[in-house]
Amino acid sequence: METSALRDPAAPAAPEPGNLTPLARAVAIFVRPSQAWVGLRDRAQWWLPMLVVLVVAVLGSVLIYQRAQLPTMLQAMEDQVANGQMTAEQVQRIEDFYGSPAGVAVTVGAGTVWIAVLTFLMALLVWFGVGFVLGSPFRYRHALEVTTWSSLVTLPPTALTMVLAWIRQSLRGLHVGFGILLPEVDPPSKLLTSLGVFLDWIGPFGIWHVAVAVLGAAYLSGAPRKSVAWVLGALYVAAGLFAAGLTALMARGA
Questions:
Q1: Can you give the three-state secondary structure of the chain, one letter per residue?
Q2: pTM for the predicted model, two decimal places
Q3: Which tens digits make up the pLDDT trace of 30-43?
């Protein structure tokens, strides 16, 4: 009878062995990403990496705002003045506002909110791909864990972008992916701007990001890695095409 009880398939599964501290998990994301997800099935920690990414984004934006971000905005407005789309007086009023502490707060705050919203949207996409397309037992909270912890690998390209923006004193034509292969045109055209967004999206850092997310989603859902890679890879490319198209709609130029 004891043997029968031990073999009973209805017996509850043993709890997931081991756990990682947040610091150890963050290190594992970079050095052994396949082992960085232990303990996340039953314990929520998604807000920790999200907070780190937001803090880095805020500090980086404040650091380069006056040196690169604001000059890039003003340069775009000067192009509109040259095309007759704006007047010099309008540009001066905008410069006065965005050069003030209130303007800095509005710009940095809006960027921070956008990053947070994008994180939840990307988690929804991961949840859809793994939980619905593959039909795996995968909760939205698990998708948040995958999205936020894998986003830690975006910190190196973010830091690189900040350094290059500081050196160049502009964000125009700045790429840290395959977009660097495009020719520089001043002012940039809609086609080159949107193409640069997509090429950066699928560049080495983007591939790294997707690979880490695939490992996390496969671990937390139990789905085969190959299937997860196909689904998340396709959704990532589709999201990149959408981002490029949106950029083309919003960008000014020929």
A1: CHHHHHCCCCCCCCCCCCCCCHHHHHHHHHHCHHHCCCCCCCCCCCHHHHHHHHHHHHHHHHHHHHHHHHHHHHHHHHHHHHCCCCCHHHHHHHHHHHCCHHHHHHHHHHHHHHHHHHHHHHHHHHHHHHHHHCCCCCCHHHHHHHHHHHHHHHHHHHHHHHHHHHHHCCCCCCCCCHHHHCCCCCCCCHHHHHHHHHHHHCCHHHHHHHHHHHHHHHHHHCCCHHHHHHHHHHHHHHHHHHHHHHHHHHCCCC
A2: 0.87
A3: 999 999 999 999 98
